[in-house]
Specification:
Two copies of one chain form a homodimer. Chain A has 20 helices and 29 strands. Chain A has 827 residues and is of the alpha/beta class.
Amino acid sequence: MFTIAASVQAETGYDAWLRYAPLPAPVMARVGSVPLSVTLLGNSPVLRSARDEVVRGLSSMLAAQITASTALPQTSTILLGTLDRVRALVPDAPPPAELTNDGFWLATRAVRGQTVLIVAGRNERGVLYGAFAVLQRIARGENVSRLNERQEPAAPVRWVNHWDNLDGTIERGYAGRSIFFENGRVLDDLTRVSDYGRLLASVGINGVTVNNVNANPLVITDGFIPQIARLADVLRPWGVALSVSIDFSSPRRIGGLDTFDPLDPRVAAFWKDRVDALYRAIPDLGGVVLKADSEGRLGPSAYNRTHADAANVIARALAPHNGVIFYRGFVYDNLMDWREPKNDRARAAYDNFHPLDGKFDANAILQIKHGPIDFQVREPPSPLFGALRNTNQAIELQITQEYLGQQRHVCFLVPMWKTVLDFDMLATSTSPGTPVRELVSGRTFNRPAGGFVGVSNVGRDANWLGHDLAMANLYGFGRLAWNPTVSARDIANDWTTLTFGHDPQVVETITGILLDSWPAYERYTGPLGAGTLTDIIGVHYGPGIESSERNGWGQWHRANGRGIGMDRTIATGTGFTSQYIPLVGAQFESLASTPDELLLFFHHVPYTHVLHSGKTVIQHIYDSHYQGAAEAADFVTRWRQLERLFDRERYASVLASLDYQAGHAIVWRDAVNNWFLWISGIPDAMGRAGRFPGRVEAEAMTRERYANTAVVPWETASAGQAATCQAGQTCTARHRYQGPAGTVDIAVQYFDESDGASRFSLFVGDRQIDSWTADAQFGSATPNGHTSTRRMVRNVRLASGDELRVQVEPDALENGALDYIEITSSP
Amino acid sequence: MFTIAASVQAETGYDAWLRYAPLPAPVMARVGSVPLSVTLLGNSPVLRSARDEVVRGLSSMLAAQITASTALPQTSTILLGTLDRVRALVPDAPPPAELTNDGFWLATRAVRGQTVLIVAGRNERGVLYGAFAVLQRIARGENVSRLNERQEPAAPVRWVNHWDNLDGTIERGYAGRSIFFENGRVLDDLTRVSDYGRLLASVGINGVTVNNVNANPLVITDGFIPQIARLADVLRPWGVALSVSIDFSSPRRIGGLDTFDPLDPRVAAFWKDRVDALYRAIPDLGGVVLKADSEGRLGPSAYNRTHADAANVIARALAPHNGVIFYRGFVYDNLMDWREPKNDRARAAYDNFHPLDGKFDANAILQIKHGPIDFQVREPPSPLFGALRNTNQAIELQITQEYLGQQRHVCFLVPMWKTVLDFDMLATSTSPGTPVRELVSGRTFNRPAGGFVGVSNVGRDANWLGHDLAMANLYGFGRLAWNPTVSARDIANDWTTLTFGHDPQVVETITGILLDSWPAYERYTGPLGAGTLTDIIGVHYGPGIESSERNGWGQWHRANGRGIGMDRTIATGTGFTSQYIPLVGAQFESLASTPDELLLFFHHVPYTHVLHSGKTVIQHIYDSHYQGAAEAADFVTRWRQLERLFDRERYASVLASLDYQAGHAIVWRDAVNNWFLWISGIPDAMGRAGRFPGRVEAEAMTRERYANTAVVPWETASAGQAATCQAGQTCTARHRYQGPAGTVDIAVQYFDESDGASRFSLFVGDRQIDSWTADAQFGSATPNGHTSTRRMVRNVRLASGDELRVQVEPDALENGALDYIEITSSP
C-alpha cells in the first residue's frame, strides 16, 4: 500500500534526504496533527531560512497551503524563534542558558487556546536546526503532536572540508567538478552552493572549508578574497561559516617577504594583515585550515620551529575575530626508509604532536585523522586522542570514499567511524571512560573548542556524491557530529526513509545493504587490519598488493612468503603500541588479546597463525575475499527486489553501480587471493583460489588482431595478461562453447580505461546478444585493477559447439583490452 | 725475459688469435728449425689462401723472408697440397681415403735430401686447415721439426650462424653493427668479411649463415641473390660455405602464391625455383637454415603439416645441389598458460620432433639448442640428443653471450658447453657410451650429416665481439667443433698464448680467469639450475627475478615464499624427465640423485631443503651470490697484476670491462639476494644479505633538484629507489662523512641509461676527485638492473665531517639517476 507514493516521480538524487515527498496516508496518521501555519519571531537570513524551510517542507509533505506570520495567529502554529524571544511569548519555556550554542528545544504548548509547536533555539542557528528537526520527524512519520525535547550538539565544531582546487578539480573527489570553483575563479551561479548549505544545515553542520588543504596561496590575496566572500554570502543564510585552507609559505609566496619563519615579526604582521582582510570581507569567517610539513607542503621545520609556533602565529591573528585555526595532525615523512624495521608511519602524528601538548593557543585546534595511517578500511584510533590534555582537538573523518571504493562501491561508513568514536581511550580514570567521541568534543579536559571535521568533496554530479547511496555518509557524518551515540542502524534507517520513502521492504533492504556494505568491502579488500590492499601511491582504488611495500610512504603490510603484518609492538616492533595509554596499548601489544580484525595492524604473523576464529590467517584471507565478493553480488540480488517500489531513475542508477561493484569485488577477490596464493604457496582449503570454473582467458581464445599484453601489477588481470587492440582496428576473440546445452550467464571481463572509448559487442554465432561502450573517465589509462570491469550478460541459451565472439573497436587512446569471459549456469 | 716482445705494439684485438707476433728467442728455441720456403701443389683460391697464410705467418713470427714456389725447391720447405698430389711427390704419404673430408696430415719427411714439412689435406680445405695448424703450433711455441700427425674433424658440419638483419642491426649482437649488411644491402667493403673468413678457417669452421633466422624473405629474391653472392665470393677462398636463413612463408610473401603449404606442388615448385637461382649464383652454397612455427614465425602448422613436411619440401630442392637444410628445433609455444603446472617449455623440442624421427630427408639436419630451454647459464642437455636415431642432428651453441653477460662480463663458455657435449645420453648399450658430442657427429647412428652450429654474431667493433676475452669463445667453439674432447684448459691456454703471448704469468692468469669466469657468472646470476634470473622477456641482461614468471614464455622458476624450482618429474611434475633414456631420466627424477647444480631445473623444493653440500637452498643462494661477486672483484685484482706485461690497449680495455663487471656482479648479488630475502623471510646466516655497511642511499642524502623515483623491478636498485634529475638541471646529492679519518674507496652506484649522456662529478668538499660521463647505448632507457653501474673511486683521504657531493648534469633523455654511494676502507 506504500508502493504508489513516490514511485512515479522522476528523481535525480539532488534533493537527497530533503525530498519532502508527499506523505502516504498511513504515515500521516502516525504523524498526527501538524499546524498549517508558521510564525517567525525576528528577522534575519538564518531565521528566514528556517521559516521558508518549514513552509517548503510542510506544503510538500502535507500537500497543503502553509501560511506564515510574524505574530501568533489565531490557529495552531509552528513558532520559530530564539529562546529569549520565545520566552517572551511562552512563559513556561526553559531559560536560554540551559541550552548550549546551536541547541534547540521542541515543545508543544497551548498558547491562547491554540496549539503551538515551539521551535526555540539557543541562537538563530538553533532555530534553523530545530525547524529541520521537526520537518524530518514528520518526514520520517513520527508523531509531533506532543513534543517536549531538547537537542544540543555534541561539540561546537561540526565542519566539512573540501579538497577543491581553484581550477575546478577536486583532489579525491569522485562526483564531478567543484561546486565552488572553475578556472581559477568562484563560479558565477552559486545556486548549488546554497542548496549544499541547506543540506549541511539540515544535519547540523556549521562550517565548511571550501578549498584544498594542499592550498593555493592565492586564496587569501586581495584579488581573491571578494570571490570567497561571495561563497560566504550564500552559505550564511544556512548558518554555515566559511573558512579557507592556507599555505604556510604564503608570506614568501604572496607576501613579498624572504621568509615564512613563524617567529619573524614580519611574518606575524603578514598573517595579521591577511586575516584582517579576510574578516573585513567575511565578518563571520570560521577560520582557517593549515596542512604544513607533510607530503611536500612547506612548514615550520624549514626554520626549525614547532608546529605550535606555526599554529600560534596565525591563531593570534585570528583571535581578535574569534576565528580558529585547524592545524592538521596528518604530518609524516613520506621518504621513510622502508628497510628499517623500526620505522613506522603510524607513529608520526603522536611523535610530532604529543610533545607539543599545551603549547597551542586556545583558538588552535589539532585536526586528527581518525586512525594513525590514512583512512584505511580498518584502523585503530589514533593514539593522539588519548594523549592530548591541553590541546583542542577535532577528529577528521573522510566522507569521500578515497580508500573505500570512491563512490563506485557502496560503503556506509558510520559503522566504521563508530569503531573509533566509541573506542575508550582510558585517558582518565573516570567512569564510564573516555571514548574518542568525548575526547574530541572537548568535554573530557574542558577544552574551549573541539569536534568533528568531515572531508566531504561533493561535486557537480546531480546526486552530489556520484552514488545515490553515498549520501548516507554525508548525512551520517552530520548526525554523528551532532550526536555520536546514535546507532548506525538508526542513522541508516532514518536516511533511507527520508531518501527513499516509507515502504518497509525498501527501508529494510536499503538499511540492510548499508549496514552490510563496509564489512563486505573490508572482506574483499583488506581484512585483518592489513589496510586497503590498493595501489597506495596512485589512485587508491583497485587492488595492488605490493604497491604499499618498499617505498617511503610507510603504509607497509610487510607481506612476504612466510607471513604478513606490521609488528608495532614494544617488544619486537616499532613500539607504536607505547603511544596508547598503557591499558589500551597492552591489549594490542599482546598477540593473544589483539582482536582478529586488527591483527595485522599490530603484529607480523606467519600465514599459518591461527586466529581467534580458529582459522589460519591465509585461510581467512581466502574465505574473506570469497565471502565479501559473494556479499557484493548479493547486494544486486537484494536491490533487484526493490524494482518498481520507488522511482526508476534511482533504482536503475544504484543497480548499475551495484552491478559494477559486484564485478569489481571479483577483481579484488581474485587479485588478492592470487597474490597470496602465489607468495604463500599454501592452497585454499576450499579449493577456490586460483581455480576459475567456466573462465576462458582472452589469451587462450582464437584472436584476430588482438595482441597479448602483460598487465601490471600482474595480479590485477586473470593469468596476469590481457588481450589488447590497437585503435582503428576491429579485434575479435572467439571461443567455441563445449559445455552442455542450457541457459548460462556470460561475464565479459574487460578494462575500461580512462583515456577513450571502446565499443564492445558480444555475439553467439552471428547473433549479437549485447553491446556496450567502455568510456569511463576514471582510474587509469592502462589495463589494471582500477579499470578491470565486468559486463554480465544473463540468461543466454547456448548449445554445445556454439561460437562466442567478443568484438571490440577502440578509439585513439583506449586499448579495448579484454581479460576473459566466464560462462556459468544461470541461477 | 718475455716481457719485451709484444708489449710495445699497439693492438686493437682485430687480429685475434692470428696475431703472428714475432717469437721471443726462447720460444723459437722450443719450436726448432722451420723451413723458410713454402711449396704449393696446385692452384685454387683455397690453396692460395693456405700458401699466403704460411708466408704471412712465418715471415711475421720468424721475422724472416719466406720464399714461395710451385715445385720442391733445393731447400727445406713446407709442402702444401692435397694428399693425392702430395703422394705423387712423397711415396710414403698415407693413402687419401684414410682421411675424412677436411682432414689433414702433418709429417716431416726427407725428400731429395731436404727436410720437407708436409701439409697434406684430404681436400683443399684440409690443406688450408693444415697450414693454419702448423702456424699455430709455431705460434704456441711447439716443436715442429718432427711432425707425424693426422687430424680429422669430429663432424662434417662446423658452421656459424649470424642473426644479422639486412638493415645492419644484429639480434642479440653486442659488438657493433653487422659486418655483412647495412641499410638493406650487403656492404660495399667486404675486407672485414674476408678477415672473418680467415679467422673461421683457422679453427676449422666451414660454413656461415649470414642472416637472421628471423629471416627477411627478400634474401632469396632475384634482386638480392647477387648481393649474397658477393659475400660468398669473399668467403670462398677460406673454404667457408655461405648459407642463408629463409622465411617459410616466402611462397606467399615473395612468390605470388596464396599459400605456403609444403605439400602444395606450387609451393614445391617455388622452392625449387629459388634454390636453383641461389645455386646459379653460388654453386658451392652450403644450404639454408629455417626457423618455423616458433616465436611468431609462420610454419607448417598453418596447414596442419609436420615439421618434416616443411623441411623436406626444401630439402628436395637442395638435394640435387648437395645442399642441406638446417631445421631449427627451437620450436615452442610462447603463449603457454603459466598457471597450468603441467605446462613446460622444456618439453617442447622433444614433443615436437621425437614423433618425426625418421621422417626427415637425408639432407635435412635438425639444429638443436644445447639445452631444453634457451642458452641459460646452466641447463641439462636437450633430451632430443638421445632420442633421434634416424634424423640428422646438429647442436646449436651460442657464442654471443645473450644470457651470459653480453660480452660486458667475461664468461668463457667452453666449460659450460662441455657439460653438455660430454654428457652421456646412454642412447645405445655401447661402451664407453654415447656422449652428446658423439651423437651430434652422426657417428652413433651412422647419419650422413651432423655436427656443430655456433651463433657467432660478431660485429664491427675492432675486436669483433666487444670484449677482448670473448674471442676465446669463438676460438673455443671452432676447436670443439673440430675436436670436442680437447680440454677447456687446453683451449683456454692455447687461445691465451696465441692472443696475448708467451709470458707465463700472462698465460696462467688469463687462462685462470677464463676458466673461473663461467662458474663465477653462474654463482652471481642463477645458481642451482634456476636459469639466468634475468629480465627474460626483454634484453636478457641484468637481474629481474620475477620477469620469467607469469607469462607465456615458459621459462619459469616458480619461486614463491616457500620454495623455488620447476618440478619436471614424472611423479609430481611436468614429466619432462621421461624424455630422457630411462637410466638418465631416473637420475633427474630423484631428488637425491639430481646434482645440486641442476636441482631447481628438475625439482621444486622449499628454501630450507638441504643440498648435497649440506647447505640449505636459501643459504646457498646467499653464499653463491656473495662468492660470485667476490670472484668477479678478484678478476680485477688478478688482471691488474698483468699491467705492462703486454700492450696497454688491450690491458686497459679488458681492465675497464672487468671493473664494470665487478660492479655489475654486485648489482646481481644484491638484486637476487634482496628478492629472496624478502620473499623467503629467511635471514642470511652470515648476516650479509640486506645489510650494506658504508652504503648511503641517494634518497637519504641531502639533495638539490634530485627527485626520488621508484625503480622497476624494485630489487634492481638499492632500497628499490633512485634519485633522478631532469635534463637541463644540475642536481646534487650531499653526504657528510662521519667515519674515522683514513683512506677509503668510494663506490658511486648510478644508472647509465641508453638514451643520452649524464655528466657525473664527485667532490670532497670543494675538491673534485672524479668525473665521468654516463653515455652507454646499452640495455635500457630507464634505471634498472641493466643500467645500474658502479664507479669506483679508490684511495680517497677522508676526515670525519668531510662533505661528499655527487653532482650530475643529464642531457635531454638521461635521468642522471643515482642509486647510492658506498664508502669502505681501502684494502
